[in-house]
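Hi V.,

Quick status before I head out on leave. The structure for the redesign project is tokenized and pasted below; the design run finished overnight.
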């Protein structure tokens, strides 16, 4: 009697565990095709390299070729998954009817906000409902958004470090997708390591050649002379061809990659960055609710040697396309003489949360296309940071650009550590406030505040030098 009962009990548990494991596996894996919309923007034929190892029959236990330890939990070892993984996935138990991270998702971010936002208001400050809930999956709505990283295979360990911090401080509760883009195919190590660290789905895209090469109107000899000259003058990345392709790609193409067409908002993450504070709320949702199109955490002055004629090209664009220049824009951030000259202020674009729909708008595309025709990505060394910044500054009304004080961030050599002692304690920050760059002489963030009539956070005077 007793023995029979026990056996049955054990069998029930075994079945339950297998199903949980299977469910966890299915809801955390995206080794199938991305839904890529045909047509739309002119992106050419692109090979989308989606998913990691053995996309066919991912259910069958696959022996790993040339394997080290299996870095990836679910997919490679489904036989182990139930025991190892199921208990560590509380979201599976919380919302058994919905895939994790996409509960109730339907339609555009705005629509979704109207449908579900009221039940789960953003936890913007201590004491707000949900503020103390930093475990488990966030019950609120998700935006139509993704992380995006441009990287080489050799960047794997530095991007792994970045991902881990983004996950620990934010995404483990939100499970947003992560798109990786590369001018070469990603290798298995890159895919295994990154997909094991990201809590959302991962997508791997190859960049079409026409987005990572010299356009036909570029004079190769002239471009080469510039690189030699810049090398002599010791300008950073001045002699690099790939750095120029990278800057042009980030300026004008990443948001048109077929995989990116599936999203409305992006958060750009680079290798080797740090995130220093807990994020209690979803910044994508802040962008949607506050109707922001572009955001930053650090700003500074550009090296003049890299952009001698960028402002001339910008003025030409403004003259040819007055219809794209926003009323109430942020020209004051970019120019001290009403647009005559550029003061070289720019948002540091290695961090960005922004609207893909804005980058895909006629206004921005016309702006980029006009600059691209002038050739400065190759005849000089225009960076994507001043290009995005001038675009945002002129094409958007100033209310649509956001400064995220709460997102503490480091990319060599600058730190944004939130101003305000109480803020840093509330957010469990581990950055040194003395290193905060915001109010120092070489930062442009003061100018942004002044241009927008914003009040600087308490304690900023103490961090001036
Ligand atoms: N696929 C690919 N990615 C690149 C290439 N060059 C740069 N990247 C990526 O583009 C982004 C910017 O490049 P970085 O080398 O970080 O440039 P940076 O931030 O100006 O300079 P650092 O101070 O060196 O970080 C990073 O995410 C890189 O991984 C390249 O040739 N191919
Ligand atoms: C997200 O946005 C993209 C781009 O606008 C759109 O094509 C896609 O259908 C949206 N996805 C969802 C699930 O609404
Ligand atoms: Mg970098």
């Amino acid at each position: 009697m007793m023995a029979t009962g026990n056996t049955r009990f054990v069998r029930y548990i075994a079945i339950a565990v297998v199903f949980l494991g299977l469910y966890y596996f299915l809801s955390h894996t995206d080794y199938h095709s991305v839904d890529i919309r045909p047509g739309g923007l002119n992106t050419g034929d692109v090979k989308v390299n989606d998913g990691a190892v053995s996309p066919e029959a991912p259910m069958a236990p696959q022996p790993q070729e040339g394997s080290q330890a299996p870095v990836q939990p679910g997919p490679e070892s489904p036989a182990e998954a139930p025991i190892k993984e199921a208990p560590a996935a509380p979201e599976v138990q919380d919302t058994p009817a919905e895939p994790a991270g996409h509960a109730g998702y339907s339609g555009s971010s705005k629509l979704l906000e109207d449908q579900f936002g009221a039940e789960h208001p953003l936890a913007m400050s201590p004491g707000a409902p949900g503020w103390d809930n930093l475990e488990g999956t966030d019950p609120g709505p998700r935006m139509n958004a993704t992380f995006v990283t441009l990287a080489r295979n050799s960047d794997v360990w530095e991007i792994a470090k970045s991902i881990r911090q983004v996950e620990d401080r934010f995404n483990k509760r939100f499970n947003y997708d992560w798109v990786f883009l590369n001018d070469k195919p990603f290798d298995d190590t890159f895919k295994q390591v990154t997909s094991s660290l990201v809590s959302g789905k991962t997508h791997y895209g190859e960049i079409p050649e026409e987005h990572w090469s010299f356009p036909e109107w570029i004079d190769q000899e002239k471009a080469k002379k510039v690189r030699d000259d810049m090398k002599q003058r010791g300008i950073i990345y001045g002699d690099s061809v790939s750095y120029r392709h990278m800057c042009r790609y980030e300026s004008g193409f990443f948001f048109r990659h077929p995989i990116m067409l599936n999203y409305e908002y992006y958060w750009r993450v680079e290798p080797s960055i740090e995130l220093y504070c807990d994020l209690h709320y979803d910044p994508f949702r802040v962008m949607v609710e506050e109707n922001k199109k572009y955001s930053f955490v650090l700003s500074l002055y550009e090296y003049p040697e890299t952009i001698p004629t960028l402002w001339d090209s910008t003025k030409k664009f403004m003259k040819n396309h007055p219809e794209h220049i926003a009323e109430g824009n942020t020209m004051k951030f970019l120019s001290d003489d009403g647009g005559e000259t550029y003061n070289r202020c720019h948002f540091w674009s290695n961090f960005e949360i922004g609207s893909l729909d804005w980058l895909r708008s006629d206004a921005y595309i016309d702006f980029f296309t006009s600059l691209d025709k002038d050739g400065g990505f190759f005849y000089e060394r225009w960076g994507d940071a001043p290009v995005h910044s001038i675009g945002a500054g002129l094409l958007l009304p100033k209310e649509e650009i956001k400064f995220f004080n709460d997102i503490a961030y480091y990319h060599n050599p600058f730190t944004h550590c939130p101003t305000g002692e109480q803020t840093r304690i509330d957010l469990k920050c581990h950055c040194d406030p003395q290193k905060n760059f915001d109010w120092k002489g070489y930062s442009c963030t003061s100018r942004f505040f002044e241009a927008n009539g914003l009040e600087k956070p308490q304690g900023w005077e103490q961090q001036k030098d």
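Above is the designed sequence. The first helix runs from residue 2 to 27.

G. will cover questions while I'm gone.

Best,
W.
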